[in-house]
Each structure stands twice: as C-alpha cells, then as structure tokens.
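Provenance and format

Records in this collection were gathered into a single text stream. Each protein contributes a sequence line and a token line. The two records reproduced below are adjacent in the stream.
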Amino acid sequence: MKQLLMGNEAIAYGALRAGVGLVCGYPGTPSTEVLETVARLKRAGQAPDVYVEWSVNEKSAMEVAAGAAYAGMRCMVTMKQVGLNVASDPLMSFAYVGLEGGTVILVADDPGPISSQTEQDTRTFASFAKVPVFDPCSPEEAYRMVQDAFELSEREKTPVILRPTTRVCHASATIETAPFPAPKKPRGFVKDPGRWVIFPWLSFANHAKIEARNDRLSRELSDYPGNELLPGEGRRAVAVGGVSAAYTAEAQSLLGTRAPTLRVGTPFPFPTEKALSFLKNADEVFVFEELDPVIERELTYLCGRYGLRVSIHGKLSGEMPRSGENSVELIAEKLAEYLGVPAPQRREKPDASLPVRPPTLCAGCPHRASFYAVKQAMKGRKCLFAGDIGCYTLGNAKPLDMTDTCLCMGAGITIAQGVRHAEPDTVCFSFTGDSTFFHTGLAGIANAVYNGVDMVPVILDNSTTAMTGRQPNPSTGVNAVGEVAQVIDIAGVLRALGVSSVQTVDPLDQDAAVSAVRKAADAKGVNAIIFRSPCVGLFKPETRMTVEADACIGCTRCIREIGCPAISFADGKAVIDNTCVGCGLCTQICPVGAIGGARDV
C-alpha cells in the first residue's frame, strides 16, 4: 500500500515490518515521531503485540532494550544525538556483550543545529563504539535501511545504529509499505554468565572478535545496495553520504552535469572495496557530507595506504564548512567551481528587512510566571539562575533574562551547586522541568543533600514534556500509549531524597509564589519549590483578558516586565490579542488595574 509518510513515520513502519517487539526511548527533536508513530499504530490496533514506552531517560531505554534483546526480542531504542551521550555507558558495553534479538538504535542527528545543544556526528560515535551505522539519504531509504539494520544486527549479534538527520526525519515521501507481521517471538532468556556478565577477560576476548567482524563487514558491505557507484563523465568524481546525496543529485541536475559518484550508506564499517574501486578511476574527489569529515577521512586514508594519487577535497581541505547543514545551493556552487561549469542562477533570498521573530514562551505559559516570581522576590540580591533543557530555556530571553547557564539535561541542579561552592554569598537557584527532573535531576538533588549545599531547586511542573510535543512523563499518570499509569509524586520524591523543605505553589498566584521564593532563599539546606501549573497546550482557553483603554496609562510595564507575546502597544495603550489564554499574570502586574474583565473565547 502506498502512503505519504514523514521520514520518522517511515522508520517506525520499517521497524514494525521487521518484526520489532519492543520500542522505547526518550523524546528529543528530531527523533520523537518515531516512537509516537509506533504508539499510535498500537493504539489503532495495527501493532497490538508491540511493547512501547517513554523511558525516563535514554540510558534506561538502552538498558531495557538490552534486557529484551538478551531474551531474543527485536528492539528499537529512539533518541536524538545528545541523548546518545546519556545512553553511551550501556551502549559501549552492550556492543561488547552482544545480543540475541536484533536491536536498532535510532539516533537522529541535528545539523544546524536546529533544536540541539551540539552538532555531534553519530557516525563518529558509531566508529568509537565499534557498532555498524546506516546513514539514509531519504525517507524511502530509511524505511528500507531500518529493516536491513535489524537483519544485520541479529545476524552479527550486535546493536546497529540508524542515523537519519533532521531533513530526512521530517521530510515526507510516498512509500510502498507492506503489512506488519507479528513481532518475532523471543526464545526467552537463557542463563549463561560466561556470555551476559561482562568481566574483563570477556571484554578482551570479545574486543578481538568485534575488530575481526568489522573488518569482514567492511568487505561485505561493499556489496550493500546503499553503497553504490553511480556512473558519470570524466575523472573528477564526487563522494556523498546521508541527505547530501539527494542534494548533490539535484545540484548535478541543475548544472546539467553527471560526475562519477560514490554514495556511502554505511559509513562504519566503511565499504573499503567499493571505495577503492571508485578511487582507482578518479583523479580528484569532492566529498559532500554534513558535520564530521567521516567519508573524506576514509578516502584520504585509503589513498595513503594504497598509494593512490587522488586529490580529496572537502572539509579537511577547507573547501566545505565544518559546521551546519548543506544545501542544494551550496553544493551546486561548489560543484560548479570544481567541475568548471557555469554556476546556477542564485535563488532570490527573502527580504532581509522582515522583522525577526525570536523564540519565546507561549502566551500564558506558566514558566513566565515562575521566572517572574523569582525575579521579583530576589530583587537586589546576588543570585544565580541555572537553567536546563526544555521550553524554560527560553527564560533567557528579555525581558525575563532568567537563564544564566544551560549545559545539558539535569545539569542546572549541579551547576548551581558548583557556583555556590565558588561563591558562597550567591543565592543559587536551578530551574528543572518535571520530565527533566526524572530524566537526570534526581542524582543532582541527592548530591546537594548529601553534600550539604544551600540552594533552591525549582521544579517547573507543567504536567507534560512540552518542548518535544507534550509527551507524558512519570508525573502525568499516563503512559506512551495513553493508558493510565502510576503517578510518581515529585514532592514525595524530593522529601524522600532528604531535601530540607518542599513548597508546591501555583506560579500564577504571584503573591504566594513570591512569598515561597523568599522563604526558600532565606533558609539553610536544599529548599525546593514546585511551581505547578499546566502547559497552555493541554487545554483550550475559556477566557481572555482585556484592557480598559481609558484606565491604561501607557506605562508599558506589562510589556517591559513579562514579555507576553499576546500583549502589544498601539496608540499609547496596551492591547491584548486573541493568543491570550486568560492566565491573569498581567492583571497582577498592571499598576492601575487596567487589565482584567476577562472575556469569553
């Protein structure tokens, strides 16, 4: 059946076609829709026997999958590239121990980066971990490759990485899909301490086997359809990988040229024999790939090892940027210069005079009220506001200006501790979302309590994992497929960890919120505040606020202090538009009471 599928949907369909029995992961753009698609198909009765879960973090997901794979079940773990950092500890050992059921680790890279802290390249990580990696160039190929990845994984008893990038994940294509078989029935866990318990002697023996296997796979993968030689004219050739293969094909079409091309779909283990065949028929090669010069380094190495006098161009030669995404326009420009043909006419750029719209917290977002309460309570005091990963990172924007640091998931809690040790006269706050609290926040809280640090951890509980699309988490009472789940009480967890005090406050009640902040900041020990108010994406507004024009004095305080995008200024008066959700924060800020009179939506 032909279906129009997003790349992430295609990956989910391909995994189900391959007989996956367990899918787990943690949400992270651009990977999120893979697991969501499996969950949706399960709810619809199309994949009833597949187990699906949002794990509390990527490390937990990797370990859940490893257990099921030991028992022979086919598994898929989903995450983005920075999530692989969290999962790296179990992955490195998982690769040494091996598995019974084929396991694919879906790691979506984010060149740009569009929505990430880093531009790290999972192809390089795969080489470091010594696990094979597939690098699709389109949604159609992603659908096929995930199935091939499962087969290779199970045959070679190793986890395998599938590495789509943002443009593959979120592009759409018409794909011929096939019915889903029932998940492959696992054989069950067979006790064998000599295989499943990772001791040094076992690691030593398995390391040697892994190196030999990867050498063999390098030869075998030269015949894999994703590694192909495309004919062309002349001895000036190009090599491509990932979505850059599609860009290069379009660029050559625009230029009316056809250079001999090597397309690399399995960058590790590298298809050496196919690459050597390609290099022997070229004088020069220009490499187009995103992020690390993985293909370029391999080709340069092969030329040196085998004495081939071929010039390799790309990132290492300084002819391509080492960061950011590629594009058809960029590749066409570089190709034209390389091949000595006229460059294509540049497309008109958008009018640069258009106003810039930086990211901002939604109108009515409770995080705005939380930040504002802390800011008001701490006026005149020396403070640190350590942020974290989530919607609330946008607290760094003016006029709030309430995010001093942001490193990685859960780090705000421990960054605040480090600053406190360095500056004992600083009141140190950390801001952590409810999902991030369970992801990597608990250890930081335990560290603060154990080491007797004076700090205020603020948990911004908006009852969802908002930034990645409002997925459930352990505090929401719902699991990945919409079933009722056990609620884990954040306040109870904090108390169990030994924090000195826990206050739960609605941040939209500014008087109560400000009072809670002052109390926590003045106390010794770890004094936590839970600001609890639902994400505005979880409900439809029933009312909106209005401005009484005659009463408004045009002071702009409502705009200058909270920066709500629903409030603007016209003809010397504040104006509230239809994006307002009636949260009422502005009514508590207006010095003359000109805002109020909520109107029905």
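Adjacent record:
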Amino acid sequence: MEEKNLNFLEEIIEKDLAEGKYESILTRFPPEPNGYLHLGHAKSLCINFGLAQKYGGKTNLRYDDTNPTKEDTEYVDAIKEDIKWLGFQWEKECYASDYFDQLYEWAEQMILKGQAYVDDQTQEEISQGRGTVETPGRESPWRNRTPEENLDLFRRMKAGEFADGEKVLRAKIDMAHPNMMFRDPILYRIKHARHHRTGDKWCIYPMYDYTHGQCDSIENITHSICTLEFDVHRPLYDWFIHTLGIFPSHQYEFARLNLTYTLMSKRKLLELVQKGIVSGWDDPRMPTLCGVRRRGYTAEALKAFCEKIGVSKRDQLMDIQLLEWCVRQDLNERSNRYMVVQDPLKVTITNWEKGKVEWFDAPLNPADPEGPSRKVPFTGEIYIEKADFMEDAPKKYFRLKPDGEVRFKYSYIVKCDEVIKDANGNVTELKCSIDPSSKPGAGEWRSVKGTIHWVSAEYAKSIELRNYDRLFTLADMSQVPDDKDYKDFLNPDSLTVTEGLAEPALLEDDGRIAVQFERTGYYIKDKDSTAGKTVFNKTTALKDSFKF
C-alpha cells in the first residue's frame, strides 16, 4: 500500500483522532479587524478550513477585537467577504468581545488566588523592569498588594476611575523566568475608547496573551493553529488554561508565508493607503485578498498555490512567480480570449471591397473548441501591433515584413506590399493584400509561419489599460537595510496606464473572471469602468521563466 504523505499538522490530527482524544476537530481563524486580509492570511485560511474539511471537522471565525482604537466594522465585513470568496464557510461567527464578561470574571478569580495584581508603574517602567534574556527582571513595588486591595483597584479600573495608562493588571508569575513572556505579563490595560460592538460598556480591555487561549478554550477549539512567531507565546497560552482549569485547547505553529517583492505587514500596508501611495486597500498592487481579487487572481489559483507551498515549521521566502504560475494555470483553462492592440499600426487592405464587413467565428477558449464562440469583424482597415512589423527584419523573423506574409488570426493570410512613412521616416501605415483563398474553411489551406492578432479600425473599441507590476524592487522585503526605509524600494513603474483598441466582443464579456488578451496577457475589467470608459487591469503575463 502506498504511504500517505502527511504534513506535521495532519500527523498530529490523525494521531489525536486515532487515540480518541477528540471525536472531531474544531479549528478557528482569529483575525484582528484592524485591516484587510492579505496573502499570508490566505495560507492560514487554507490550513484551518482545509484541515477541518479533510477530517470532517468545523472551523469558527473569531474576531480578536480587543483593541478598539484600531478596529472597525469595515474590516469585520471585508474579512467575511474575503473568506466567502475563497470558498470557505465558518461554523460560528464569534468575537473575543463575546467573552469579555467571562474573561473579567476569570481575572477576578486570579486576583483572589494571588495570581494577579494591579500595577501602578508606567509602560516604560514595566518594560525596563522586565530585564533581559541574560538578566532577571525587577519586581514591581506594587507586586505584593493584598488580593482585597487588588480586587478593589481592578473593579475601580473597570468603573472608569483611572486614566489611560494609569494602572494595569498583571499576572503574578516569575520575574526571573527564562521565558520573558512569563515575567508578569499584562492582562488588562485601561483604554477609554468606544468599541465597535460593546460601545462604552468597557474601559479596560484584555491583552492578546490573556485572551487568545481562553477564547479557544471557551469554544472547545481542539487545534489552535497559528504562525511560527507565536511559538514563544505557547507556554503562556498553556499556563493560563492550566491555571484556570478550563478546556485544554492546544496551540500549534506553522511557518508564515513570505513572498518575494511583497510586504505583508498590516501596519505598513495601512501606511501605504493613508499616504496615498496606493489607491486603497484593494489597489491591485496590494497583497490584500481584495487587491489580488481586483487584479484578477482567482480563489482557485490561491488555494492551488497554498497547496503547492505546503505546511512546514521552517520560514522560507517563496517566489511570487509560483503564485503567478498558479494564476495562469487556472485562467488558461477557463478564461475567454479576445484580441486587443495596445500600440497600433494602421494596415490598409488594398484588395478589399470598400464598405465590406466579414465576420469570423473565433472560439472563446481554444481548450473548448466546440464551446461558445464570438464574432470578429474584418474590414478594409485594420490595426496591428507596431512590434509585429519590422522593415529590416532578420532571417528568422516570422511576423509581418515587406513582401512577407502572416496570417491575421482567425482570418486571411496577408502580404505586406508597401510601407508608408512620415517626413521623419517613421512607419505610419502598411499597404497589404489578402489571399482570398486562405480564408479559413474555404479553398485550400495554406500555412505560413507567423500568426498575429489584429482589430478592425471601424469596429475597434477604445479601452484603458492599467498595467501593474511588482510594488517593490527588493526581492526580500524582510532584509531592508538599517539605513533605509521600506518605501525607498517602491517601484516607480508599478503602474503604467495606456490606451488599447479591442475587438467589440470584449466589451460584451460578463467579466466574472479575467480574460486573455491574445499573445499579451490576462486582464480583468475594473470597477472604475463607466459607460464612457472601460478599464482593464493586467492580471499577469502569458508566461514567465518560472520552472519547478
């Protein structure tokens, strides 16, 4: 029997199920609603929802909404939209704020047991008192208050008697602990700020390390899966659960997604938005899920990418070309094809009857030749790409050249008879003739080596093209030199805007997924399109040099 190739998380889950530790698994996806989801979150979504689906379990969506000054319902709604777009459905929609009463009650229990105390030190004093990895911390002068005094102060904190930063509640563990996370971590801080769900009910808010494990426990999460930077938090996660004697959820860590030429810090992405460096969270250059969706990336491609990179416990920098390859693989199978000329050169067909229009059938997708087709108009004036003509062409140049022949895709073989130039010697027009016998489906088939795309001058539709490139010029954005700012590596050519001429059928496309501009790349209709101007965003080129 062939051995199953399992990742380390699958091995853990299969062992837990086989040993009867759990009847079924329950995972969770716990975003903080302070920004939009990005490609790194896509990996976490695929892991948490994917594992639950594979093993017949479920996944909760739980918002880590403990920082009211940075959170907003805009982000809450956007996160749900992104998860649904990826094709996942959560079991329960939960919020850390759902458990504020329970978390507060547990904090009072810890105070009464002498496991927590109110500290009057400033943030700076607390930070300095933690010590270093080599030296133990210094105990707070308020560490030995009585449980009764601490309980009174904590209740007064809750009642709003004190100003922001005036007091905090800390766990009383060990200021000399080798793991600095255990050096009396802060459980609650005072923050007089309106919460997007609880309003003004609270002016004290729990910290992440006090909140996360207990929320997992309340929901009976069996496998709390997060990224590798939280591995140092795991012992404290376990300590709170053990100390409170609650359901023993357990945390597991995997390597986060790092992509070349990409930044996935919500704080820095927010700065790009606020400073107008990008047009918004959904700018197609952004690594946000709404940004790549607007660029034309598909959910199927993102999930295929996450499957290919796998699950590991070692950080690595993934090549963004692999993601682009996955996008192309998906779009190649499903996208409709159209012809668009971006740098036009006029071609006049000299042996074409004036006013005549001939409509050619062209498949929407060559992968399905018997499937739907579109009508392409051929007239006596045509536009081709300037790059598809060369006056002094080398021997192996198979596009149009003087006295040379090419096939205009889906239509006739065309011969260049005359080159028209302006006073400066620039080519402005080509006089060409068609071979009537070369019409597809009629006469005797004749093959030529070159085939180029084109549009009818009379029927061409003007469109705006937004050609996107990588937002940064540095491959590994985690290696920005100390004397530089990450914005020093912004790519000045990450967006160029041009005009194009499209065959008319393009504007009738429903725009659900990106289309292929033949011989050019994949593009998707943008939301900025109006009745008078249709805008297309470049999704990705037709191919690149990426190899497995």
